[in-house]
């Protein structure tokens, strides 16, 4: 468990990174979004280790002129949007004894979301434990802590941040690193290989905030 609350700047950077990565795990970028990602690549809020590898892969993606269509196909194939998944993006598949979605792990994730008054956007229609949603939850925890600090309510900031820390420990760290490493190996584009490494870097950076 983390011993201290991160600074406002660090909370802001973590929130931005996990929010962006959460969206990219859930859906591939449009052409306009892809252009924006490349324009703002130098402003990525985290650095070092796997984050630097991820940024280098995004640079290679731009150099290779990977377009939104090619990147969308890679996302679809990786996560089985249209067919069999190369790598399942759901926690329950990786952690349940039977390897199925909507198992007890999914319900545990759902309960964690409720601690911040959140729920999956397609409740009971799609599993709550997609890696993109779990990353978004971490982002929300950081944002709520930041808002509480700005309101001079440190006890609330610590409360909501610890909810995220616990979620990282009990859920994301139990399955996501290996999944992300596998996805990086299987990715057909530099872009999604970069997303996987940026995700590993974000997890490592969050852990390093003890």
Polypeptide structure, described:
The protein is mostly helical and 210 residues long. It is 67% helix and 0% strand. It contains nine helices and no strands. The radius of gyration is 17 Å and the shape is globular. The model has no long low-confidence stretch (mean pLDDT 90).
Shape call: globular
DSSP summary, beta strand count: 0
Distance between the termini: 8 Å
Order of helices and strands: HHHHHHHHH
Mean pLDDT: 90
| Relative helix content | 55-70%
Characteristic key phrases:
9 helices; single chain; 67% helix; mainly alpha; 210 residues; globular
Per-chain topology:
Blueprint: H1 8-26, H2 31-39, H3 50-63, H4 68-79, H5 91-95, H6 104-114, H7 131-150, H8 154-186, H9 190-207
Helix pairs in contact: 1-7, 1-9, 3-9, 7-8, 8-9
In short:
This protein has helices at 8-26, 31-39, 50-63, 68-79, 91-95, 104-114, 131-150, 154-186, 190-207. By secondary structure, the chain is mainly alpha-helical.
